[in-house]
């Protein structure tokens, strides 16, 4: 049976989807845009966007009762692969030593013209 995960400490979904779903002890987040849930605004700096996307992901994980060390897979969508080193610099501050598996893909365009979007899979 699936359980919908929601927190007010991350932006609400901008479409017909949930922030995350838990099923059989696994939590699957939707892609998190770098929107500040308090202001509804988004920076134009890729490092700030990466940090905000991860803060949003971690807020959802907290609402699901999941320790960030239990993230097993991340998918990072970026607008420009040239930003990869800057994104990595921020990313590694959230996952220190106990790195999850990861995919990173360049995409033509992201919702709200974001530069980065991040989703994760975690276990309880």
UniProtKB/TrEMBL annotation:
A molecular-function term among this protein's GO annotations: 2-iminobutanoate/2-iminopropanoate deaminase
Any one of the GO CC terms: cytosol
Q: Which UniProt keywords apply?
A: Hydrolase
Q: What Pfam families does this protein's entry cite?
A: Ribonuc_L-PSP
Is Ribonucleoprotein among the key words of this record?
no
Q: Which InterPro entries match?
A: RidA, RidA_CS, RutC-like_sf, YjgF/YER057c/UK114
What is the E.C. number? 3.5.99.10
PANTHER family attached to this UniProt entry: 2-IMINOBUTANOATE/2-IMINOPROPANOATE DEAMINASE RIDA, 2-IMINOBUTANOATE_2-IMINOPROPANOATE DEAMINASE
Q: Which family does it belong to?
A: Belongs to the RutC family.
What is the name of the protein in this document? 2-iminobutanoate/2-iminopropanoate deaminase
- Tell me which species this is from: bioreactor metagenome
